[in-house]
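Show me any protein, fold above all:
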Amino acid sequence: MPDAPLLHYSASTAPLQAGSPDNPAANTIDITIASPAGRNIYCNKIEVAVPISKPGDEGAYFTEQPTATIAGKWSPASAQMKTGRELGLASDANYYHFPFNAPPIPGFDLIDEPLKITVSGNLAATPGSVLTCLVTENSGTTSGHYTLKETQELTWDTAEPVFYLHNFMATAPDKPTIPRTKFNSGDHVRFTWESNGTSFKLYDGDGTLVYEGTDTFCVIPKDEDKDYKIVSDTTFTLQASQTSGTQESGYRCATITITINNPTLSDLTVANNLEASDACITGHLEANTTHNTGSFTTDSTLTAGGSATLEGGLTVLDQQQVVMAATAGGINFDQNILANLVHAHSLIVAVTSPGNWAMTADAYSGVRLCEQPTIDDNYQP
């Protein structure tokens, strides 16, 4: 029978999260090893083993090879898989075996400072079950003289995992590691997140469901959804749900705002001045103050309640007829007249029915021109 361990062991006390084999939970266990107060204990090796298949007692286990580190001067040796029977247990369960060695330098085998071993990995367990870790030391009271001591069993309780939704972010599909929130209208946007939820829904700012599924990523718009595009600034809401048995047990939500560089707006109200280097209006524009534009196009009605300043010219795109055009104090054109271009220094009127039209002073009263109006009787629409 091996002697009892000379070193003292303490384990982290917080319960571990119990994941399932299909959805294991990330966990970390810490083991602190120290000499008893007032004693010099020498140790050249400590071995740690954790289960990686379900033990005979139905306890918790790591679903894949965990990682192990040790703080301080010691270093881990090559890890390997062993059966419970190889470790002296009456079990055929598989264990991952981590040996930690003291440096082969005189005096480094003295445990004068605590050693801390950390094991991390994904854990499967039934909530309330126990994870058992085996620890064996090769120690003595004199440097260079060691014996293998009795194996210690350290245990951790498990509990229902904490439901989480983290790291909700957007990227370009071709650059999935670079966070981004500004895109052009119609661009594809890749959303990713971290969660132990069982299903997810993604809504846009109007409450439209744009993704539903179990993956922790999606690309919007989807290839099969040709009609949906992100054309204006939108805040997306991600809803994660968790199912226990057949019942949904909870929800978590996260939001992210996507900004569009060249948005399409359904309605726009400007309280003060509006300046635009290039503006295209397809609906009705009503201007109650001054608007300065570099290039301006309207396919519908333009009403100027205040003043309109044209540094270039005015082009009327209706090639059939103009019922009435009014600007700058009342230029009125007969319904048979097509107003093609108005300049600040000249007025050119293209006539579609010369026989039915006469130019009168009232037609351009209130307009200050540097030249007299020019009548083009040969205009062909």
Remarks:
- Residues 165-260 form a domain with the Immunoglobulin-like fold (CATH 2.60.40.10).
- Residues 316-372 have pLDDT under 50 and may be disordered.
- The chain has three domains: 8-159, 165-260, 274-376.
- The longest strand covers residues 247-260.
